[in-house]
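User: Please fill in residues for this 217-position structure.
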């Protein structure tokens, strides 16, 4: 079964009217299953635009912003952000398809912005319970939002910059708390709650939208 489609497999000797009767008897289950698949498919929809051109919608901090493409004499694409994303594209690139180059430039910009915001969040939360990381790194990860190494090295997935700011804050606090408590015991979650009393709603957002977020730009 796939979105909007049902395939029935039956032995060759089974009469066609018997197959129709079977499908009819299972109609309610089929309708419910199709609805569930459609909902799941929608939840896992990529947040990224199909093409990175003028007018494209770029996800950032839980909101979509318009992309404006402008020519420049610079030799490399420059990204600016102020209520919209602006990609200053070199004249030589303007005359050909520059979608891939704009995407790469946006990813570079977002990784840099992620590092800056994560460092600010660490400063905001670390001192409260003396949860000081050895290093802070921004990584591209396909299955994890963050990690805390045995030497208290904190790694954060840059894709969290696409999520609402409170979700990035939750992951940063989560990993900081692992400096003190390495497991996910009740004591660990109590420590997280001391920093973020509403951490459960932030965690729920990540569980619900994480698959779409992980698809990246």
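Assistant: Residues filled in for all 217 positions:
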């Amino acid at each position: 079964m796939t979105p909007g489609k049902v395939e029935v497999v039956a032995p060759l000797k089974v009469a066609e009217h018997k197959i129709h009767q079977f499908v009819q008897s299972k109609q309610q289950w089929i309708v419910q299953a199709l609805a569930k698949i459609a909902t799941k498919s929608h939840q896992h929809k990529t947040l990224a635009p199909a093409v990175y051109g003028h007018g494209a919608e770029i996800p950032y901090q839980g909101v979509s912003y318009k992309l404006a493409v402008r020519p420049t004499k610079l030799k490399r694409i420059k990204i600016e952000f102020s209520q919209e994303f602006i990609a200053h594209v070199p004249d030589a690139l303007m005359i050909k398809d520059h979608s891939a180059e704009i995407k790469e430039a946006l990813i570079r910009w977002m990784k840099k912005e992620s590092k800056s915001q994560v460092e600010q969040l660490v400063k905001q939360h670390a001192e409260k319970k003396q949860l000081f990381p050895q290093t802070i790194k921004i990584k591209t990860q396909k299955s994890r939002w963050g990690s805390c190494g045995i030497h208290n090295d904190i790694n954060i997935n840059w894709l969290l910059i696409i999520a609402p700011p409170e979700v990035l804050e939750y992951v940063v606090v989560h990993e900081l708390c692992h400096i003190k408590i390495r497991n996910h015991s009740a004591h660990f979650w109590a420590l997280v709650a001391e920093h973020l009393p509403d951490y459960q709603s932030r965690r729920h957002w990540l569980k619900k939208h994480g698959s779409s977020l992980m698809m990246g730009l």
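For context: The chain is about 45% helix and 15% strand.
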